[in-house]
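This part of the workshop introduces the protein records we will be handling. To make this concrete, we reproduce a full record directly below:
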Amino acid sequence: MNTYRLRVKRQPDGVIETLIEDPGPERAGLALIAHPHPLHGGSLDNKVVWQIARSVLDLGYVAVRPNFRGVGASDGEYDHGVGETEDLLAVAAAVGAGFPGLAWTLFGFSFGAYVQHRVSRRLAAERLVMIGPAVSMYDFEPPPLRTDIVHGEADELIPLGIVRDYAERHGIALHVIPGGSHFLHGKLGELKQHLIRLLRPPD
């Protein structure tokens, strides 16, 4: 596996720090992974984001983890999801150019899920997977592509009932992790199992 960091240029100025983990020539696709809220410690090193990357790498995806603006070595300031959407689109354009013919799958955790649901309306992708989406905090529209939600049963920040209502309203598959908190303490192995089941091609 090759691991490297890019400083992706965005318009009109600034750069987005991006960690890329490439499993090698037998690639299954590209996975764009968005971290939780930047004003509450969210970064590409978040443990849930790290576990998403490990899961997709095991399935042969190139794992792409940017830091939103104002986080780590990324320039700029928090922009309520608007500028962060532009960040991810810039990263997808730059990284995708280096892997022609590979499709994107979008992953977002918490605030990152909100940003990715916005990205899904502008980027050609095969699938959107939202983990702990903050549907009680932000205005989530119906996703325009195949979507799955993975959510902790005991999420103390985003109640499961609100997420279930959103999922049922828009025909989204909901996968519940029993006893899981918002940050899935002690449940990262179960998260990985869910992601692998969702993404593994049928025999």
Summary: The helical segments are 47-58, 82-96, 111-119, 160-169, 188-199. The CA atoms of residues 9 and 15 lie 4 Å apart. The beta strands are 2-9, 15-22, 29-34, 61-66, 104-109, 127-131, 147-152, 173-177.
